[in-house]
Amino acid sequence: MIILEELQVWRKAIDLAKEVYKLTKLLPKEEKYGIISQMQRCSTSISANIAEGAGRNSKKEFINFLSIANGSAYELHSFIVLAFELNFIDKETKISILDKNNHVIRMNVKLQDYLRQNLK
């Protein structure tokens, strides 16, 4: 049984989502149903899919949900770049969030690799 709080990638994904929520408070209010909503949705989806996968009954299912979480992380990457290119955020903010996001992606991929090697 996996204790979710002991899963470091899940903890980092939660921290990332908190950062995204703080960031979206600074974006233009007219983006509430656009980029703000999308950034919040995909950032929370990362940790949610890690959690759902951890709660499944097989490593194969866990790997599948980790893959979905990775897709959400790449989606977040796209929205961060878009927010920068629309001048909603500065370069420093973009780099900071992307670094945290990339860290979660790397951790996620390593966990997937580990699970694949130990599928038995």
Description:
This protein is an all-alpha fold and 120 residues long. It contains 4 helices and no strands. The chain is elongated and about 50 Å long.
Give a quick summary of the entry.
With 120 residues, the chain is mainly α. The chain has helices at residues 8-24, 35-54, 59-85, 91-117.
Question: Can you tag this structure with a few keywords?
Answer:
120 residues, mainly alpha, de novo design (two linked rop proteins), 76% helix
Topology:
Elements lengths: L7 H17 L10 H20 L4 H27 L5 H27 L3
The biggest sheet, with number of strands, parallel, antiparallel or mixed sense and barrel status, is: none
Overall form: elongated
Could you say what the CATH architecture is? Up-down Bundle
At the fold tier of CATH, the topology name is: de novo design (two linked rop proteins)
Give the CATH class.
Mainly Alpha
